[in-house]
Specification:
With about 110 residues, the chain is of the alpha/beta class. Helix content is about 35%, strand content about 25%. The chain has four helices and five strands; from the N terminus they run βαβαβαββα. The protein has a five-stranded mixed sheet with strand order 1-3-2-4-5, sandwiched between helices. A hairpin with a 2-residue loop joins strand 4 and strand 5. The longest helix has 13 residues. It is globular and about 35 Å long.
Length: about 110
């Protein structure tokens, strides 16, 4: 998993630019929430070779709520925690929250499976 910390608003422009050539995943995580911890752990355990080329931006919501608000505005997706968003060609093509975050769904929406 190519993990990068999403800790600066300027990285949203980097995500949009990178998503022009391949999908990018944003994972919004609340470090004080057990459901969020479970979802993050499950995502890491289930990550597959198909997804290895997909960059993952990890957002610590407790420290960067402002970035989450900007994500909500730029990608027109209501804030949830935990939340996974797949950005492709500058738009959010998939989002899920809580225990509805599933690796096969990410693979499908990233165009990696039929």
């Amino acid at each position: 998993m190519q993990l990068k910390n999403l800790d600066n608003l300027s990285l949203l422009a980097e995500i949009k630019a990178a998503s022009q050539s391949k999908a990018v995943l944003i994972f919004k995580h609340s470090t004080r929430c057990s459901i969020s911890t479970t979802a993050w752990s499950r995502l890491q355990r289930q990550w597959t070779d198909l997804l290895e080329g997909i960059p993952v931006y990890y957002l610590d919501l407790l420290n960067h709520r402002d970035i989450s608000g900007q994500i909500e505005a730029e990608f027109s997706v209501v804030h949830q925690s935990p939340q996974a968003l797949l950005i492709d060609k500058g738009i959010c093509t998939y989002h899920a929250s809580h225990l509805d975050i599933h690796v096969p769904d990410i693979e499908l929406h990233a165009g990696l499976t039929n």
